[in-house]
Design brief:
mainly beta; 3-stranded parallel β-sheet; 391 residues
Length: 391
């Protein structure tokens, strides 16, 4: 039977002293340790408290420290392994030291505004199942950047965080990085060893490096980032591929990408004028949905689009090559291609105006072709599933 070990607040001083001594006297603790609300330990001149445990090497259950609002320092000098590690609501915690910690199942850090550095020793944590870090004062993730494997990785709303660099080779569930603004300079991210992932979402990043990424089984999505270029030179397939509201983006390069098994969406990337970095893309099993102010789109290897085809731009645009794809039944679903739109929209929206007679530089006149498209108003936030249903 699992045992939860509580270190109680000051009103249970006798029990606290006994519990703390029991924990401090063993090297392996079979059960869970919970430090909640407060501690019966002396306060310093600032009214803060420190807790240090020197002997425990392993906790078979969870270590949970929540709402101990006076706790400024937490040290487990010898701890190597715990199942779950949760810190939450520790508003003055500025020192976290576990120099021997290498393995944890779940790591969950929330509401730690004073914590700027993780001290997990030279190598740090190398194994974890899930990581959630939100609303902390961390400026880097040194201490967990040598993770070799991870199922779920979610880092959000850490306003000082400037860099995330992980050595993982696979992400078996999901990766979510958003609203970490590096004090408004932007978050840089790097995953130099990552080869396979299930679902990846990036928001508010200033750079993203995925040089080894070969396959994403579900969605690979980029929303509201500030990077100017994106390249994944080894990516060959993705479940869905989405670029939305990346206002500085000027170039996308995915030279080995051959298939997208879901939605392929590029929308409202205001600096992206030419879309030509998909030279081997052959099959899109969902919808192909481009909207913005681009002037040129090149998809020379495209042989199949099973879902809807939507291409709307505010610029002059030549649709003749894509009209031919529709006529040759490369596009299986509803088809729209139109330039010169006042409000170019995603799949499911009706073009706001036509541009017959307008010409793009070096091309023939821009065209518009529609095939029984239902009128469904929406914006760039329409979910991928809707895009695939517009057939």
């Amino acid at each position: 039977m699992a045992i939860t070990h509580y270190i109680l607040p000051a009103l249970a001083l006798a029990s606290t002293a006994l519990d703390a001594s029991q924990l401090a006297s063993c090297t392996t603790y079979s059960g869970s340790v919970a430090i909640e609300t407060g501690l019966a330990v002396p306060q310093d001149a600032n009214g803060h408290q420190q807790l240090e445990i020197t002997t425990v090497k392993k906790i078979t259950g969870n270590l949970t420290v929540t709402n101990a609002i006076a706790l400024s320092s937490l040290k487990f000098d010898s701890l190597q392994s715990i199942r779950g590690f949760e810190l939450g609501g520790l508003t003055v915690l500025s020192e976290l030291s576990m120099p021997a910690l290498a393995e944890v199942n779940q790591l969950n850090f929330t509401a730690l505004p004073a914590l700027q550095v993780l001290d997990f020793g030279g190598v740090g944590i190398t194994k974890a199942v899930s990581v959630l870090i939100t609303n902390t004062g961390l400026s880097s993730l040194t201490g967990i950047n040598n993770l070799q494997q991870i199922d779920t990785f979610n880092v959000n709303n850490n306003q000082a965080l400037q860099n995330i660099s992980l050595q993982v080779t696979s992400i078996t569930n999901s990766l979510d990085i958003e609203a970490n603004d590096g004090y408004q300079t932007g978050l840089t991210t790097s995953f130099p060893m990552l080869e396979t992932a299930t679902n990846m979402t990036f928001r508010n990043c200033s750079s993203i490096s995925l040089p080894a990424l070969a396959n994403v089984t579900e969605d690979l999505g980029f929303y509201g980032n500030t990077f100017e270029t994106f390249a994944a030179p080894n990516l060959t397939s993705a479940g869905g591929l989405i670029f939305v509201d990346n206002t500085a983006l000027t170039n996308i390069s995915l030279p080995q990408l051959t298939s997208i098994n879901g939605t392929y969406q590029i929308a409202n990337n205001t600096m992206l004028k030419k879309i030509d970095g998909f030279t081997k893309l052959s099959v899109v099993k969902g919808a192909l949905d481009f909207s913005g102010n681009f002037t040129d789109v090149e998809l020379p290897a495209l042989t199949q689009v099973q879902g809807a085809f939507n291409m709307q731009t505010s610029s002059n645009f030549d649709c003749s090559a894509f009209d031919k794809l529709k006529q040759n039944k490369v596009v299986k679903g509803n088809y729209i291609c139109s330039g010169g739109q006042t409000k170019p929209g995603p799949a499911g929206t009706k073009p706001s105006g036509t541009s017959s007679g307008s010409k793009a530089s070096g091309t023939s006149s821009a065209g518009q072709f529609q095939a029984n498209l239902p009128v469904v108003m929406g914006g760039t936030s329409l979910v991928a599933g809707i895009l695939q249903l517009v057939l």
